[in-house]
Amino acid sequence: MMSQPNTFSFPNDSPGWQKIRKDMQDNVNQPPHYNRKDIEAITAIEASMSEIEFLGYLKGNVEKYLWRYGYKDKPIEDLRKAEWYLKKLISMCEEMGSENLKNNFNKIDE
Which of 9, 31, 105, 110 has its CA 20 to 30 A from that of 37? Predict the structure, then answer.
C-alpha cells in the first residue's frame, strides 16, 4: 500500500490562505502589482531609457520615498523602498565605474 504525501492547503478564498499569501508578498523587493506577464516594471523601465536616464529615475525614486515616508501608513516600508532604489543606484554606478560615470554626467552639462 502506497502512502499519500502529507499535504495541507487552504481554499483560495479562506481567511487563513489570504493571510498567508499576504504575509508572503514582498512589497519592497518584488511587489506583485508591478509585474505583468513575468516582466517586472523596473526591468521594462530600464529597457526604455539610456543608462544615465535610468540613474536619474533611480535617484528620483530614492528622493520620493524619503520625502513621503513620514506621511504614510507604512513609513518603514517606504524607507526600505528608498534603500532598495539607492542600492540599485549604487550598484549601477559601481558597474559603470567612476570615470565612465563622470564622463556621462559631463556630457549632460555640455
Answer: 9
What residues does each domain of the chain span?
A: 15-109
What's the CA gap between 89 and 93, in Å, rounded? 6
Closest CA to 92 of 50, 63, 32: 50
pTM, two decimal places: 0.67
What pLDDT digit, counting tens, does each position of 31-56 carry? 665 556 678 888 889 999 999 999 99
